[in-house]
């Protein structure tokens, strides 16, 4: 019997009715471990109707009640972090320590949302006009949907759901069909935390479910994280249907290393950020820009580290880098190494020939030097353990390279020169910047988001901008006049 992974509707698992499923694999062995249900438009409509009814009641729950549920969910998430991490590793393949890191960063978003009474506070102006007060309120939108990628099956749903639910919405999650089980664990924790049925829904599915959510009149807003072509299409389709949309896309993150940087520190950072999670992070460093005469020393230092990386099953505590998500993706990543070599890049370390465990979707770490901006290894998001080194003579050359790239998710500069770092932070056209920090994912009380083809929409995700996204403002102008003073006045109201 194959394990069947269901939806989660009205506080309980719900078997799919569409008859369509998608296989789920253990990337470390290549074995097919389960089938996940794929929702059709009717199942989407039924789940949204349930969420709509739940949203109506949930928005009436007091702020302290909502906050109490968030606190309870935080405790449960913390207590069940091991199980969640193991579930992530079993379907995604990332090593356990990385899966724990993902849960920890997701937890931060829940902790932020615990402060919802403070987050949705409005403003109040007494005596805005004579005997007139004006105040602002932030109200939930109703039913909001989240469509999430395979690479963070717990953290990205938490980026969205924590604030959406805290603000009084019902949240419908459409997780990646490649690693769907973490979503069900989260759903069960929400239930145990006391969240009313229907406020957190999981609809497993693919494009069919996404299209139905995008067209559904009762879905008020859509948060999306995934690849750029899909992000763009979600943004265009969702806004055409009158929804609020924030759609985060792909990335090509540059790490600029100035000639004065500490070579070992920069090499450690490049290897950690380039090959962690086998490069399947939207904030992974995929391009190292070596400025001036540091190039040879830096390439040598990175190359020296690669044979020492322990590649193996994510569940093995000794492994540092796990497999890729699928056989197709592994082959696609490997084909880029060949394309880079054909285009004239120097293959310093070739991951295709590395010794890796048999059976799973493994690929060794690759280092390509003397990559130029016209090569596909530079222009495309590879999303695998392939690090490209581009060389430039000057700081300005490095800055121009970063700013000319169509992606603008994250970037980092490595230097000991504070003035140069300050200048980079000022000039670079990228949403998230690290100064001697290779993966500058903002803490939960800031917001996460890139620029250009890395984000469609105008609000970043989580943090204060997440609260703005999941609420709409209302301004009330109020007075309590003495009826005896009432007159007809056709003039336009002024405040003086
Ligand atoms: P993906 O775009 O293939 O899928 C993302 C989600 O969209 C999934 O739920 C999937 O089922 C759905 N989907 C896929 N194709 C669709 C279509 N044609 N129409 C409607 N829905 C569709 O992305 P992925 O492979 O799961 O994730 C990797 C990508 O996500 C990378 O490009 C990575 O950079 C990006 N990512 C970005 C961020 C960020 O914050 N900017 C974070 C994580 C991942």
From TrEMBL:
Gene3D superfamilies: Aldehyde Dehydrogenase, Chain A, domain 1, Aldehyde Dehydrogenase, Chain A, domain 2
Tagged with keyword Ribosomal protein: no
One protein family per Pfam: Aldedh
Record has Oxidoreductase as a keyword: yes
Key words of the record: NAD, Oxidoreductase
CDD domains per the UniProt record, alphabetical: ALDH_F6_MMSDH
EC number of the protein: 1.2.1.27
Organism from which the protein derives: Actinocatenispora rupis
GO molecular function, one term: methylmalonate-semialdehyde dehydrogenase (acylating, NAD) activity
Region (Disordered) residue spans: 1-24
Name this polypeptide is given: methylmalonate-semialdehyde dehydrogenase (CoA acylating)
Ranges where the Aldehyde dehydrogenase domain occurs: 18-476
SUPFAM superfamilies xrefs: ALDH-like
Gene of this entry: mmsA
InterPro entries in alphabetical order: Ald_DH/histidinol_DH, Ald_DH_C, Ald_DH_CS_CYS, Ald_DH_N, Aldehyde_DH_dom, MeMal-semiAld_DH
GO BP terms: L-valine catabolic process; thymine catabolic process
